[in-house]
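SDR family oxidoreductase
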Amino acid sequence: MGKHFEGQRVLITGASGGIGRAICEAFAREGAILLLTDVDSKGLDELSQSLSKTTQVLTAKMDVTNEQEVAQVVSFFLQMVGHVDILVNNAGVSTMNYFWELSEKEWDFNMNVNAKGVWLVSKHVVPSMIKRRKGVIVNMASMAGKIGAPLLAHYSASKFAVVGFTQAAAKELAPYGIRVNAVCPGFVKTPMQDREVVWEAKLRGIDDPEKVREEYVKQTPLGRLCYPEDVAKVVLFLASDYSGFMTGQALNVTGGICMH
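Structure:
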C-alpha cells in the first residue's frame, strides 16, 4: 500500500510544539513534503533534522501575527515547491487568569496568535489554492472554543473565533473545491498543559498541580488525558479524502467531555 499523503505539500504552523510535532511526524510517516514554521527556530531545526531522514522538509521561522513575515514565508514555500495542498493552522498560545485580572497584553497575545494568526496564514495560502481549485485547511481550535473555560476567557474567545472563522471560510471556499475544518482537542498532555496545571493550581489555591491533572481525567468519560497523537490522527483524517464531503466542521477530540 502506498502512503496516503505521498508527495503532497503540507504547511504546518507551530510545528515544533507538542501537538505540532505529532502532526508533523504523522504526515511524515504518510510521505508528505513538509513545510514547517514556528517562532522557535531551535525547536524547528531539531525537528527538521529528525524528520528529514524520512521525508523532504523545508523550514522557516515565522511569527503568524506578522503579516509581512507570513507573506514572505508563504511566497518562499510556493517558489520552492510550487503549491500547498494542505494547510494546518496549528500555532497557538495560552495564559491563565481571571478575566478581570487579565492585562490587555495577555488578551492581545492570545487573540493575535490563536485567531488573527489563523486568518493571516490562510489569507496568504488560499489564493494559490483558489487558482488550482483544490486544497484543504485544518485549523486548531479547542474544546474551549465550544465550552467557555474558567481562567481562560481570552483563550476561549480566541478559539470560539477559530470555529467561527472556519465556518465562514468553509462557505466562501466551497465553490473552489477547498475544504476547511477545525479540530477541538480536550485536555492534551503537552508542555503547554504542564504550564497550565501549575497556573491553575496557583490561581485556585490548590497545593499540588497534579491534583488539577487528576481533575481533568475525572472529567473525561474515556478516563484518560488526550495525547498529541490522538489529535494528529484527526488532523490527518480531515486532511484526507476520507473526509471529502466534510467542511465547516469542528471535530471534538475530548474523550467525550464535549459532545456538541
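The first strand starts at residue 9 and ends at 12.
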